[in-house]
Design a protein that fits this description.
This protein is of the alpha/beta class and 331 residues long. The chain is built from 14 helices and 13 strands.
């Protein structure tokens, strides 16, 4: 699971500004929503106006900056002679194609298409890219708002809501109040395959009430079946409890955990990637660990690399073989 943070995005753009400077662009246009983030970073670096795609098409006037002198001061988007159209990533190319269809023919000749992260470097539907980032991949800015969650395990405390304080965590009335009124943290837009938590099974009713109140959709809620907080501390089974379920579900690709130590342990036990929210880091298994504990993903990645990089004649021979192996391991 290749992962990029906001910090990675800014650094990758900065390290590749030489590709952008050669175009001498006087306007950067972002494709909403994710394309707006890199568009503004680029616009600030090269000191030109930035706008969104719709505003570019409608020729909405720019707001004058009070103190900053731009490299190419223009009042309206259509005055730009060289336009850099930006999106954060590409896979099928459908989103980019849809955006290009909106642009009038009279403006298309001005546009250069820049993708920050492409799946491979042999695409003919883009003009420029910043970095090749193979699939599977995830980004800090959209990991909680994509269909990947349908193939994910997600912890609750420290992820969907803030952790309880020591005072709240009394395994009594204060804890029940916390469960019912926990402060939301990173809420999701898609249904989650499985919520896997170290909360005790006896607190399922309160947990379900909070999840419903905060519009968290999920298929499974896996809790720890122990009688008390003391028993949970004695067993010290937080990570192993989560890893056991995650490993047993072959179709699940990623675990989203808050605690860095637990994230690392879950990754080592399962051979699958685990994202630590607190650390803002993707723990990824090594090749040997993945080969022994998660061969399904290894076959899948190999299959995708073949699909992208192999010549057509060899691809036609090998793809059915890897597809068969992948299906066998999936079953």
């Amino acid at each position: 699971m290749n992962f990029k943070t906001f910090n990675d995005l800014a650094l990758d753009i900065k390290n590749n500004l030489y590709k952008i400077h050669t175009g001498d662009y006087d306007l950067v246009v972002g494709i909403p929503r994710s394309g707006m983030i890199p568009a503004y970073i680029i616009g600030l670096y090269i000191n030109v106006n930035v706008t969104d795609l719709e505003s570019y098409i409608l020729n909405n006037p720019f707001k004058k900056a009070a103190t900053r002198k731009l490299k190419h001061p223009i009042l309206f988007p259509h005055e730009a002679k060289k336009v850099l159209l930006v999106d954060d990533s590409i896979i099928s190319g459908n989103s980019l194609e849809y955006s290009l269809e909106k642009i009038p023919i009279s403006l298309k000749h001005k546009v250069t298409k820049l993708i920050i992260y492409t799946d491979h470097n042999k695409r003919d539907d883009i003009d420029m890219y910043i970095e090749v980032l193979p699939l599977p991949r995830a980004f800090e800015w959209n990991i909680f708002h994509r269909k990947l969650l349908e193939r994910a395990c997600v912890d609750i405390d420290g992820v969907l809501c803030k952790d309880p304080t020591d005072d709240q965590n009394d395994d009594g009335s204060k804890y029940i109040d916390f469960l019912l009124n926990a402060k939301p943290h990173l809420l999701t837009s898609y249904k989650i395959h499985s919520l896997v938590t170290s909360r005790l099974e006896k607190y399922r009713p309160q947990t379900e009430i909070w999840l419903k109140k905060n519009n968290i959709n999920y298929d499974n809620l896996i809790m720890l079946d122990l009688p008390s907080k003391e028993a949970r501390l004695k067993n010290n089974a937080h990570a192993t409890h989560k890893a056991k379920y995650f490993k047993s579900m072959k179709e699940l690709e990623i675990f989203i955990e808050s605690n860095p130590e637990q994230a690392r342990e879950i990754m080592e036990i399962t051979g699958k990637p685990v994202f630590s929210v607190d650390q803002n880091f993707m723990h990824k298994p090594g090749l040997i660990n993945e080969a022994f504990k998660n061969p399904n993903m290894l076959y899948r990645k190999t299959y995708m690399r073949i699909a992208i990089n192999m010549p057509s004649w060899l691809k036609s021979i090998l793809k059915p073989i890897y597809k068969f192996i992948f299906q066998q391991n999936k079953n």
